[in-house]
Amino acid sequence: MKAASKNDQIGLGFIGVGIRGTYLLQGFQAIAGVRPVIAADVYDGHHTNAKEITKGAILTTAGAALAAARPTMDDISLAAWSINRSFFGAHRWKNLDLPRIAREQFNINGIEFVNQFFENPMLGYLNQLRKNADTYGVRFVLIMVDGEGDMSACDKKERMQAAIAHRKWVDIAHYLGCHAIRCNMGGPRQDWKQDADLTSRSAESFNNLLEYARQADLNILIANHGGASSDADVVVRLIKAVDNPNFGTLPDFGNINPGDDNAEVILGSRTSTGSVR
Fold it and tell me: What's 19's domain CATH number?
């Protein structure tokens, strides 16, 4: 997969339309160029609420079977972080169980891994993951990578070490058939607007990682996780500074900085970068 051009319209799918999901659905419903397409929720009352908000325009399902069955390139994947509480707190499942969970509980075709969930990513473990994917008919989309260093650190040695630390996840993602890894931009959580070198430092790190990922034809994505990474202007400058078709964004539509307007942040990223995936 390569970076996409700017879309005339963004179609959104929602997993869960309770209190938080309703807030997001109402917000995106009001944005020109954004179309809520489908909502998956186990409660019938939430389906009714979603249809009322969209005046009947949205499809609803108890799982994700409706979206998964559509004969198109668009599809829904299960972000493993969305069920993290049952992993960390309840210990109900392990990473090797995700293909079964995606198929049997949600009827979803794709999985977005979290690197923290990999118990022991050696070759035998990865082969078992691939075997489980074949058994349940799911594909692996990407790996969300956390805890591997600050890609925007002021110290060059520190940020280059962070780029190197991400390389193993490039290799693992490639072996599993993923198209990308998601990284964190890093950088200051406060006063980033006064950090004149932030973009150039971050671009240097990501260019280093992209050069390594080039041999695997793997995409490198960044997500907005607060601070500088949730500032649309900073993200746009970074995308332009890197200027690589394998570098893009993985937006978290609910993760913005306090005081910012959700709609303005999303529209700022969409209309300026042309690389939202």
Answer: 3.40.50.720
Residue 89: domain span: 72-273
Q: How many domains does the chain have?
A: 2
Query: For residue 59, what are the β-bridge partners?
Result: 38
Q: Are residues 100 and 195 in the same domain?
A: yes
**Half-sphere exposure of residue 123: CA atoms within 13 angstroms, side-chain side:** 0
pTM: 0.70
Q: Which two tokens stand for residue 117?
A: 């969930």
Tell me the pLDDT band of 16, cut-offs 50, 70 and 90: confident
